[in-house]
């Protein structure tokens, strides 16, 4: 962990502070960043829900197929 912290350039914390000050000074930029963050989070969650729904459908079809195959073999 210490070696990872040693690799961070010295000017990075200063640059981060400058960016924070710019965002605080510009409410339009702040609103844009918040809006973009909310939209991308919603898209991310929608993608996860969509994939879970697809997985549930595939799992249900495979399960139904396995039960159908099992009872027709007997």
| Element string (H = helix, E = strand) | HHH
- Which outline best applies? elongated
Give the C-alpha Rg.
25 Å
Structural class by secondary-structure content: mainly alpha
How much of the sequence is in beta strands? under 5%
Oligomer: single chain
Number of strands: 0
Unreliable residue stretches:
none
Intertermini distance = 60 Å
Count of helix runs: 3
- Main β-sheet, in a few words? none
Average of the residue pLDDT scores: 90
Helix percent reads over 70%
| Total domain modules | 1
Keywords:
mainly alpha; elongated; 74 residues
Q: What's this model, at a glance?
A:
With 74 residues, the protein is mainly α.
Question: What would you say this structure looks like, in words?
Answer:
This protein has 74 residues and is mostly helical. The protein has one domain. The chain is 91% helix and 0% strand. The mean pLDDT is 90.
């Amino acid at each position: 962990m210490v070696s990872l912290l040693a690799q961070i350039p010295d000017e990075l914390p200063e640059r981060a502070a400058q960016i924070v000050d710019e965002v605080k000074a510009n409410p339009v930029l702040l609103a844009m960043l918040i809006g973009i963050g909310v939209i991308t989070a919603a898209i991310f969650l929608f993608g996860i829900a969509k994939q879970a729904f697809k997985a549930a459908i595939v799992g249900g079809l495979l399960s139904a197929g396995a039960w159908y195959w099992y009872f027709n073999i007997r």
